[in-house]
Each structure stands twice: as C-alpha cells, then as structure tokens.
Amino acid sequence: MSIKHFLTLQDFSTAELNQLMLRATELKKVQKSGEIFEPLKNKTLAMIFEKSSTRTRISFEIGMSQLGGHALFLSPRDTQLGRGEPIEDTAKVISSMADGIMIRTFGHDIVEKMAEHSQVPVINALTDDYHPCQLLADMQTYHEHRGSIEGKTVLWVGDGNNMCHSYINAAKQYGFKLRIASPEDYDPNPKMVEANREHVEIIRNPMDAAENVDLVVTDVWASMGQEEEQKKRERAFKDYQVNTALMQQANPDALFMHCLPAHRGEEVSAEVMDAKDSVVWDEAENRLHAQKALLEYLMADA
Ligand code: CP
Ligand code: NVA
Asked: Counting atoms of ligand 2 from 1, which one is nearest the CA of 51?
C-alpha cells in the first residue's frame, strides 16, 4: 500500500477531511475530560523547522506527547541539512528511524521531494505555497462556532500567499465560496484561481468584497522570508486592513480568523482582534486537536 502524505488539502478527499474534523473535536473532548488516549505509544515524529514557529512546533510536540509518542525538533542549524545534505538522503535516513516526518520549509518542491523519498508519512507544516495544517484548525473552529461551512461565503483579505492558497483548496474541498481582496501584484497563483473559478473570485475593493460574508480571514503582509519587503508591502497593503468598518459590511454573525502571529495596526486592528466575533484563540488551540486527529490518522496502527 502506498504511504499517505499530507502536503496539501488535495491529498485527502472531502470525506476524509470531514472525518478528521469531527475526530479533532472528539479528541478535544477526550483531552479536556482528562482521559488518557495513547494510540501512538513508542512512535516518533521528526519535526524539521527551516522557518520559525510558535504554534506549529508546540501543537505537534504536545500532540505527540498526549498521544503517547515522542517528537524530535530538528533545525537546519544543528543538522546536516544546514550543511547541504540532500533532501533525498535526509528523507531516507530519517524515515528509516522515525514513524512520521513533519516539515516547515521554503519551496514546496522540498516537501514533495521529502515525501517521494520517505518510507513514512510526511506532513507539510508550511511552505512558501501552502499551509494545510492551519486549514484543518480553521475549518474545525468554524464548525464548532457556526456549524457547516458548506455554501457559506469566506473573505480573504490581503496577500495571495501560502494561507490564501490553502483557502482556495479549502473552498473546493469544503464547498464554500471564497472572495479574495488582494492588492494588484499580490494576487494568489493565477493558475489556482483559474482552476477553481467555480468557488473563487477576486474583488479588489475589500469593503465591497466584505458584503454579507460569513467569515473574514487575513494574514501578515510580509510572510517569513519576505522581511526585506516589509516597507514596500506596508504601502501596497495600507487599504487592506481588517477593521471594525470592514467587519460591519459582513453578516452580523460573521467570524474573524487569523492564523497568527498578528500585527495589530497592520493587517488587523486591535479592536477586531479582541472583538467577540474574533475566534483567533480557539483557532490557535485547535491546531493541537486538529493535528492530533491527523497524526492518529496517518501514524496509528490500523
Ligand atoms: N499559525 C502558525 O503556523 O503559527 P506558527 O508560525 O507560530 O507556527
Ligand atoms: N503567511 C505566513 C503564515 C505564518 C503562519 C508566513 O508564511 O509567514
């Protein structure tokens, strides 16, 4: 049987994604009840971080420990990856010992290469192009607060980045309409927009785009690796802040999400971050529960 990887949301069917979402909410209840559940006893997840992380590292590491297993933090600074050992060789070696590999890196081709040469499941924990683990948590959070997202309208405000691409994939997989309000020159990959025209539309003016939406999502203006563009991006994105005026265009029960870390006063106002419709803290916590469901699915013995 071929090994299952999770590199983008498209690696799973809609049925699998929905099943994972329900399982995540179940596992959340199990953990909150204090019950011990250890389906990954003696299993190890190797975690490669070529970029910084707070939520992803903590949620995968704690998730593995709650499931009875162990997580190993590997950075390029302390491994031979940083000294140029090829991804193919690294994948073979790590997967001969670990039971799963989680990787956060730059080019998406790196995670694809890792998966190609790995004997164990590979999980994409963010590349320049996608952040599928975040979407598992976002979809779970929406479901817990408002029920099914199918048929709803979601607004993405800001950069057509890795998170935006994963929202495009999610629109198809979970069956919602996605409006993208991005400034010119910062659109998502046009091929992805074209391939998903049925679900996705670009509307330049964020105030127009926000009318009657059910969920508003944004992300930083400069992602990891784009630090030197910060000033230029601040100018390009100045009219793309999620603030109270924008949220007032949305449906009265619309939620606000942000994968975090957030920059108050840039992509989101402090008022919106702390408003009652903001579910960013639940969203962050759900990284733990959603990924536990993913780890169980990929790594537990059948
Ligand atoms: N949202 C997210 O992936 O956060 P970290 O970069 O802190 O892992
Ligand atoms: N787009 C952001 C997401 C961080 C979780 C980045 O890539 O830095």
From this structure: 8
Q: Tell me how crowded residue 26 is: count the other CB atoms within 10 A of its CB.
A: 14
Strand order across the beta sheet in which 215-218 lies: 200-202, 177-181, 153-157, 215-218, 255-258
Catalytic residues: 104, 131, 134, 219, 259, 287
Residue 47: beta bridge partners? 73, 102
Segment 90-137, tens digit of pLDDT: 999 999 999 999 999 999 999 999 999 999 999 999 999 999 999 999
Query: Are 113 and 195 within one domain?
Result: no
pTM: 0.98
Residues 197 and 230 grouped into a single domain: yes
Same domain for 262 and 235: yes
Distance 261 CA to ligand 1 centre (A): 7
Residue owning tokens 């993208």: 180
Supply the CATH number for residue 143's domain.
Answer: 3.40.50.1370
Instruction: Give the pLDDT score at 2.
Output: 84
CA 175–ligand 2 middle distance (angstroms): 24
Question: 47 — phi, psi (to 5°)?
Answer: -115, 115
Query: How far does the centroid of ligand 2 lie from the alpha carbon of residue 88, in Å?
Result: 25
Shared domain for 150 and 279, answered yes or no, is yes
